[in-house]
Amino acid sequence: MKILVVGGGGREHAIIKKLKENPQVTEIFALPGNGGIAADAVCVNIGAKDIPQIVEFAVSRGVDYAVVAPDDPLVLGAVDALEEKGIPCFGPRANAAIIEGSKVFAKDLMKKYHIPTARYEVFTDMEAALRYLDTAPVPTVIKADGLALGKGVIIAQTRQEAKEAVQSMMQDKVFGKSGDQIVIEEFLTGPEVSVLSFTDGETVVPMISSMDHKRAGDGDTGLNTGGMGTVAPNPYYTADIAQRCMEEIFLPTIRAMKAEGRTFRGCLYFGLMLTPNGPKVIEYNCRFGDPETQVVLPLLESDLLTIMQATTKGTLAQTEVKFQDAHACCVILASKGYPTAYEKGYPISIPGEITSHVYVAGAAQKDGQLVTSGGRVLGVTAVSDNLKGAIREAYAMAETIRFENRYCRHDIGARALEAGRN
Ligand code: AMP
Ligand code: GLY
Fold first, then answer.
1. Which one of 120, 199, 265, 359 is least enclosed by Cβ atoms within 10 Å?
2. How many angstroms is it from 380 CA to the middle of ligand 1?
3. Which ligand lies nearest the alpha carbon of 151?
4. Is residue 150 over pLDDT 70?
5. What distance lies between CA 2 and its chain's CA centroid?
6. pTM value surpassing 0.90
């Protein structure tokens, strides 16, 4: 089988490595892939948002199945366009990907179907938003409606900060059209949990839970990033909470999307906060998380391609989805300065014996040498029968990887370890 994977980060590398475990897979094309993915797939220089070219390539190469991994092409309709040409896909169509593409859509869906989430107001008029903030409780959370490269959420500690955030989104348009509409919502507290799920639109099967580390610095300090590391499972996500989430959040969301004529197939990511008043949805993503995928998929025992195809065919209820009873930790090695300015082009050395544990995100091939080309350069994942061992092994392997200006957090998994002890 010939498989096409749209995207080119660490998440896509993890998906590709897992797909390769199926002996029926003969060829994988990554569009565009990256310098490290090139060791596991044929990388083709077509951008992940270039839908006409993606479709043309898939048709001309006789691709049997396509996996669209990033949010942008999903929201732009890559799955719709590929399906029109008869190519089955993993991922939601555009009318379902809107669950991530528009925060206003997601919030209104949750309100209509009584799915627990933070209380909120939507504004299209800046003056009205500023007036509302005169009396709103603080801290408060301001969110741009559309995709904003993971940066469209501002937690304002004071009313003044909140007003500045509204002005930057609605007047200065720092997130472009994404700021035409904004959501102002209640600030929630509690541990965060990421739950990725497989769904065919009827059945929803949660994957093993995970914990992201979004801030750049140790002790959850510094700027928000795409994610500096992950562990799975998340110790806060107990069996009782999992059952509650299934009944109050996962199934109601899948049913709501179907009832709206927007059946969701693919991976639906639930970003949850376990508040004192129960689990609530912080955000939905229409795709696998990055770097959650780099800890979740290494723990998947069942065949990934079979599960993906079941979401397309609507046979997920009859398909085995089994996870190993073990722990995983992924440490991201980044370029110093990320998520703002950083230098790139530095040679990377990875000892041969650990390559199977390395997911490459931002690296390119230059004169036969792997060099840094992005903020998050790579992730190193270890699996162990206990969390402590997974953390220790991930850091021990990360130590052996060298490149100039290399930066990582030193406390990935520390909070999970602490929580697991209580
Ligand atoms: P996002 O970019 O949607 O992933 O949001 C970034 C982060 O903002 C989340 O991971 C949460 O830590 C935080 N956040 C978002 N919404 C809320 C909320 N209503 N209350 C508290 N924190 C929030
Ligand atoms: N790691 C968070 C995300 O993928 O959105």
1. 120
2. 25
3. 1
4. no
5. 25
6. yes
